[in-house]
Amino acid sequence: MTPLLQVRDLAKFYGPRRGCDGVSFDLYPGEVMGIVGESGSGKSTLLSCLAGHLPPDRGEVIFDTHGHGPRDTLAMSEPERRMLMRTDWAFVHQHARDGLRMGVSAGGNVGERLMAVGARHYGHIREQAIDWLGRVEIAADRVDDKPQAFSGGMQQRLQIARNLVTGPRLVFMDEPTGGLDVSVQARLLDLLRGLVREMGLSAIIVTHDLAVVRLLADRLMVMKDGFVVEDGLTDQVLDDPQHGYTQLLVSSVLQV
Amino acid sequence: MSDYNFAYLDEQTKRMIRRAILKALAIPGYQVPFASREMPMPYGWGTGGVQVSAACLTPNDTFKVIDQGADDTTNAVSIRKFFEKTAQVATTEETARASLIQTRHRIPEEPLTEDQILVYQVPIPEPLRFLEPSEVETRKMHALEEYGLMHVKLYEDISQHGAIATAYAYPVKVEGRYVMDPSPIPKFDNPKLSMAAIQLFGAGREQRIYALPPYTQVVSLDFEDHPFEATKADHDCDLCGASDSYLDEVIMDDAGGRMFVCSDTNYCRARRAGGHIGAQGAPYEEATV
To answer: A139 to chain B nearest CA, in Å?
Structure first.
């Protein structure tokens, strides 16, 4: 099987400071990869480089495109890469306001990606928007409300609907549950797990919350100071950590 | 004799503006940046249009200015006087006699010909501006033809009002390529944008010039199930009886009295002179006392 995403020796430096360095991995279709580590360990830098938001200094990000097979996204032209971003890729921001248009109704937010790929039938766009609001547990009568009128959890669910409506194959998530209270987190995780399994999505999830990766991720990468210090199956890494930092991380989780 | 250079601007400036105009005509709908000058009027009063007119005027031109269709409003009168003084060109209120027409918010009712130039005053040239505040991003969207966002605006209209409620500055696609703001003309005028005359758009504060060459294909954006509709008040002109012209609603008293009159004053006058009388109109001779 061809990996959906192959990352080879990716590195990003901010001047003399290291963002991330020497990152390589394969992500297969339907697989969910978690990236954990403390603040400043380079997780978000890595995610931004993978998603094309930041140009890395070195390395390759090879994506198995629909039409042309595996291609290095860093060598693509900008129109191609932006097209990829609104069709096969999706990016869920930590703060919903970064990923939503706050002045546009929920339906418009979900419909934007459809219109960006050429949908020009109002009735169909609205139908799909309402369908997707339902799938993320937002009532259909909220379709014309603006995201400002939504709670934090609802905004995050709306952002997820907006991203998944075009049926992407790869989703990047940056701390999708950050800033939400625990009960809302639990519902969101439940929802995400359902959607990922149902749609057969591949995902890369950056988080510092080990519970999130335990629930969602098949595989785990642990980052420290810009390097990947340990990787493997989630349960294996969390239950039998080998690297000193991973042991510290696992033992730092507060038990209630 | 005037102490001003012909048409106020110096020759180098006019040359710079003409280069921008030529580029704009070569790439219909594309916004060409230009070094907009300080003009002796406030921004928002047509500084862009005036600069484009100044760059196009020749001593043989006949100049007409309209504001919301009317020749006799403050903006129109002062711009007309400005060029009478600085360029000594002939001026007229008759659409057919003018070779250069500067307009704010309307296209004349009378079809224009290949011998005419129509100059628009544009407040905000970027059709995507209210949805995407970043200029860097909107330029990229134009370059890559990413216009999905424009339909988000129309989607919002329908979801809130049940129909596309945008009534003016209705976005158009030019020759299947650039999405363009036709300046705040009523959408009633949108179908006229494909015309025989050259159309130039000048935005002074925003420092942009764009253009439509004669007979350019201009399509108003819409949805398949909510097609574009050129709307006007469902009424005839009360002065000249015209049923095909764009109307202004005029409040007559505080008891709900109102009348609808042509916004194009020259068109209305010509019709009344030709003997047409509307529901509340007086015969032409009496009206011009």
So the answer is: 16
Residue B287 has pLDDT above 60, yes or no: no
Q: Are A160 and A195 in contact (CB under 8 A)?
A: yes
Q: Does A81 touch chain B (CB under 8 A)?
A: no
Contact check, Cβ <8 Å, A115/B149: yes
The pLDDT value recorded for residue B2 is 61
Q: Which among A52, A57, A51 is positioned nearest to A22, based on CA atoms?
A: A57
Span A17-37, average pLDDT: 93
**Chain B contacts in chain A segment 126-145 (CB below 8 A):** 126, 143-144
The interface predicted TM-score of the complex, written ipTM, equals 0.86
| Residues forming a β-bridge with B186 | B168
Buried b (16+ CB within 10 A) or exposed e, A215-244: bbbbbbbbbbebbbbbbbebeebbeebeee
Of B109, B103, B56, residue with least CA distance to B263 = B109
Of A218, A214, A254, A256, give the one whose Cα is nearest residue A238: A214
Any CB–CB contact under 8 A between B144 and chain A? yes
CA B170 and chain centroid, separation: 12
- By annotation, the residues of B acting in catalysis are 29, 237, 240, 262, 268
B 166-225 → A contacts, CB under 8 A: 223-225
Which residue of B130, B132, B151, B154 is the best one to mutate when testing the A interface, meaning the one whose CB has the most A CBs within 10 A? B151
* Look-up of token digits 């990922």: A196
Contact B224 A143 (CB under 8 A): no
pLDDT at position B288 over 60: no
Tell whether the torsion through CA atoms of A95, A100, A105 and A109 is positive or negative.
Answer: negative
In degrees and rounded to multiples of 5, residue A170 shows phi and psi of: -135, 125
The answer to which of A20-34, B54-68, B271-285 has the lowest mean pLDDT is: B271-285
Does the pLDDT value for residue A223 go beyond 80? yes
pLDDT mean across residues, chain B:
94
Closest CA–CA distance from residue B269 to any residue of chain A (Å): 43
Chain B positions touching A101 (Cβ under 8 A) are 131, 152
pTM: predicted TM-score of the whole model, two decimal places:
0.88
Residue B286 has pLDDT above 70, yes or no: no
Q: Summarize pLDDT for A91-134 with one digit per residue, the tens.
A: 999 999 999 999 999 999 999 999 999 999 999 999 999 999 99
3-state secondary structure B211-280: EECCCCCEEECCECCECCCCCCCCCCCCCCCCCCCCEEEEECCCCCCEEEEECCHHHHHHHHHCCCCCCC
- A141: which 2 tokens? 């009568």
Confirm if B63 and B80 have CB atoms less than 8 A apart: yes
